Amino acid sequence: MKIFKVFIPLLLFQIAFLNAQNALDFSIVKATESCSIVIDKKDAKVVEIAAKMLASDIKNTTGKTIKVLNELDDNIILAGTIDNNKLIENLIKSNRIDVSIIKNTWERFSIQVVKNPFKGVNQALVIVGSDRRGTAYGILEISRMIGVSPWEWWADVTPEKRDEIILSVENEVSKEPSVKYRGIFLNDEDWGLQRWAALNFEPEIGDIGPKTYSKVFELLLRLRANTIWPAMHRSTKPFYSYPENKQKADDYAIVIGTSHAEPMLSNINTEWNHETMGEYRYDTNSEIIKGLFTKRVKEAAKFENIYTTGMRGEHDSPMIVGEDDTDQQVQLLENIISDQRAILKKETKKRPNTIPQAFVPYKEVLTYYQKGLQLPEDITLVWTDDNYGYMRQFSNTEEQRRSGGAGVYYHTSYWGRPHDYLWLNSTNPVLMWEEMSKAYEFQSRNLWILNCGDIKPHEYNIELFLDMAWNMDAFDKSRSIRTHLKSWSAREFGSENATEITNLMFENNRLAYMRRPEFMAWSQVEPVTKGGETELTQYHYGDEVTSRINAYEHVVETTERLYNTISESRKDAFYQLVYYPVIGASKLNQKWLYHYKNKFSAQQGKASAHFYGEQSANAYNRILKETNYYNKTLAQGKWNHIMTMQPRFLPVFSKPVYSVVDSKEKPALGLALEGYEMEVNHDIVNSYADVLPVFNSYTDNHYFIDVFLKGKGNVEWKAIPKNDWIKISETKGVLTNESGKQQKRLWVSIDWDKVPKGENQKEAPLGHDFQLIPPSYKVNSAIDFVSGDHTVTIGVSVYNPKFEALEDFSGFVEDKGFVSINAENFSRKVNGLEASWELFEGLGYTGKVITALPRSVNSETDLKLIQQNSPLLEYDFYAFNFGEVDVKVQAVPTHANYEGRGVRCAVAINDAEPVIVDFQTFGRSDAWKQNVLKNASVQSVKQIVNKAGKHILKIWMVDSGVMIDQILIDLGGWKKSYAFPKETIKK
After folding, report:
1. What is the pLDDT of residues 12-59, one digit of tens each?
2. Number of separate domains in the chain
3. Phi-psi bin for 54: left (phi > 0), alpha (psi -120 to 50), beta?
4. How far apart, in whole angstroms, are the C-alpha atoms of residue 329 and residue 810?
5. pTM for the full model?
6. pLDDT digit string, tens, across residues 500-520
7. Of the candidates 835, 895, 851, 875, the residue with the CA atom closest to the CA atom of residue 967
8. I want to staple 969 with a disulfide (CB 3.0 to 4.6 A). Which of 46, 310, 671, 819 is the partner?
């Protein structure tokens, strides 16, 4: 028998409580009895809906039917809203419960056990809400306590079966939500949600209608959200074209708003008829436009709404005006807002400053606002990200005093340039946390909306976003996201799998942060371009393409293994929440990565090009297979048509073409070395491509050699090191035309205990070229590759000096003409007068970034004051060369917090005067496009390394909140690569 006894504070998922008192047990279901849920029929409809949802959850958990009543029973859950439930009012008047702390507050609730509350009632679990949503959230909190996931229906998280449910309940009172209005925007629904609703879930109307919205609203209630911006593409009829939609929203207590392109709840995309209404231009056609606004306000006035004010053009485009004059555009927009408020006043019979309104300074509208647009202060300023997860700006100190406050419109799905990401959820949760915590710090607390596309597969990020909006206090550190994800994983899939699932998703997010899966074709949109050349190097720094292939292969293996350990009742849920998104990201990456390997191998004449082409095709076919399973088989076809593997049919989703090497030559051994684009040419004596990069004892490098088949047939090969300190991963083998056996990658490393030491000196001589190392420090040897009667010699050079200055040195050393540093591995940090450097976990190329906090600290640009007062990072490094160097700093490509602030730090080597580095981009510049495609902003400054030996790289805060990821000090040896080489830290 499974008995479920829970002490509330231990299982509540991201909820804050006040005034905890001694716990009392309450039995929801026991072997011989169960409770009833009692509500008042005069209470809000959402209270009845929530009560029935809880009753259903209890039945799905225990098999026991729970009644929802309007009269007393002997063991009850009593739920109601202050002033709307007679039984609760009796308890208040008799001082059996005290609700003074939540009365007249926003969406709060209390939960407590009351013994013998009424005659004939043994006990009651009393849930009181400050308003209708507060009551609903309180009721559904019981569902969370008994282990029911908010994704019970939307991701088939089947409740775990229990025989009994006993709650150990304290007298608890929830805090007010951190954000007043919290919700989602259904957008770009053409390829998923709309098709699924029209063809599967709601075929009777062939569209997203009241039946679909009821399920969406139920999800929002479970996630403690209260707002929706409905779907608005042409594929979907306007929300208000189905009268039942708005009534359903009110039944579920969901507030209706609309996007930046839909003023006054109107859907311009589908409601504006050019033939009957003329041109959508306010300067020439204002009366018709005002007529549309008036019609909408009349039909929506009695419901809860947030009216979007202002105006943009059709199809998410700029507003059309007579002249391209910013001042005229600003004036026109001010007139539009004034007219809109007059309509609101007339049709609602309320003062405009009492009606929730939003103004979204999105794209060109932000420019108008920055140019002086005067906005009534009661309208909420809704700041937006740049469509790729980086907030454009926030309210400054003056704007934070506006009575309407501020909000956030944020994307985890986007259609537009430089490239869409409509298929998978590829926004890093820690980035979203960082930007939302910044929004919260700058008082954007009135409205948070997440553009989550089709809902699926954005489940986790939706819940995280709304949990933060509900209780931001629970997310005070970056590691809070790992804690949240682990709790989420444990709730959905059991504590035994939680840590591994969390690690898996963090790695998947890290790889997607380096480049989103949808960006892997190196193509762009608006206009759509074909796949381009990858920036990932295949012959420097261990081969970035292969390294990424291997990283994703590990992710795939882990996901498949975990899937086999998940209980049968949760396998469908795991597939939706973890398996498909991770496998999809992995295989879309591998499809393109193997394509690049295929093309590069064909250029080198490798027979293995065919194998890479096959692997690319296999990855494409795996995506096809998994998508078909999602739609056709998963949950007995419940989700048929919800998942499309190629939204907008962009080139990145297509099956790549492949290069073929059709050689009729006799079989021969080919060699290709790390560091060279071409193969070793056997016919040229002293070919420059026949020497491996120098091995450095201070960084303990290893390099690859590819042995590959040329022509058709079999080739035997041997690798014979000329010294015992040369280690090779394999020393012999056979290459054949069999798929996967045409090539072998060997790894060469050094046994440093056996290499002769160089001369003992205090430190390196003054500046020697690393590739022309003095003989006293360099040991040369070779590896002979023998195939039949043919021998190719590959040079091996090791750098193995003995410098006294490096014996106790802890820091970074030059290797192959550069020093590579992960920013979190500083040697020292010095706090400033008002700020300090802090670590954010789960973000950046390395999974960690370093940032200066708090963000409210003023910027400092005076170089003397920077050195005196700003927080400082120091990195010890040792150079073997000297002269002018490039210091390249890679930062997370955020924007300035508001006008007058920047995205800057200051850099110097040793005691040089600091140089300010600026990462800010503006508009949709080419620099911004590359930054968001790569999730990195790299800026370079010149510095002087005045001698070989020890040095200190210094980085100061100029603007707080700048997140530094990696650093490269290029002394002339760095070869172009997508990411900086692995850090050259002294071993």
Report:
1. 344 444 444 578 999 999 988 899 999 999 999 999 999 999 999 999
2. 5
3. alpha
4. 60
5. 0.96
6. 999 999 999 999 999 999 999
7. 875
8. 819
